[in-house]
Amino acid sequence: MKKWGISFIVLLMMASCSARSASVQEEIPMREFGLTEPLTIAEDFFPRDMNIVALGDSLTEGVGDRTKSGGYLAYLEQKLLVHKAIKSVAVTNLGKRGLRISQLDKVVNKNKDVLQQADMIMITIGGNDMMKVVRSHFFDLSYSLFAKEQKQFAVKLEKLLKTLRSINEDAPIVLFGLYNPFGSLQAIPEIEQVIQLWNEGSKEIMDKYENTVFVEVADLFANRDDVLYSDQFHPNDVGYQLMAERVYERLETEETLVLWIREQ
Length: 264
Prior knowledge:
With 264 residues, the chain is α/β, with parallel strands linked by helices. It has helices spanning 2-27, 58-61, 72-82, 104-110, 112-116, 127-136, 143-167, 191-206, 218-221, 237-253, 256-263; strands spanning 48-56, 86-93, 120-124, 173-176, 212-215. 30% of the residues are buried. Residues 1-28 have low confidence and may be disordered.
């Protein structure tokens, strides 16, 4: 009986020491383990789904893309999927050939629910507004005619941005600039100045609003014969790929993707 009693007392003492030891461990400050700050998880640790809604004309529709997979949007999707913070990309393409900026109102109003859910809104518009001047005044074209149309375009662009912001307050809005689709057309000797005027006016409007990106692409098409479709007006596969690379570069430069990830 003595031996059993002694053994029992020893076990009680060991259990008491273990409990005391555990209690002491719980009270040890984190700094004694080498942790000076709470453990944080990187913002891009958990990849996220991205929802893109694209508005605009034939460049959004992808006219000239031989694969018929969505023009620049298909190439942009490929680049975004390589980003470690993006798990998947869903694209809603609302582009329609021949669309002018005044006709975007109908598209926007019809797709408010879709736009409200967008993580990013992409826009190509303006080419057909400029072409309207060419068709209406082909034999008496002048710089002043384009300048007048550009001012009207700028007013409509600002209205469009206000409408989009009323629908979706947070999504980055990306607008592509215009490029010269006329080559060396002698009927418009000041076409390069017209393109510059148009792009500068659009960028000025975009700069009034937060979380917007203006993407310059005129230089990508200047003096190149390998970037246009057979109609010599729309981009071909190479042209669309260059557009996608440029917009991705701008999103990285403006840290648009970083800000989007932080807000999720």
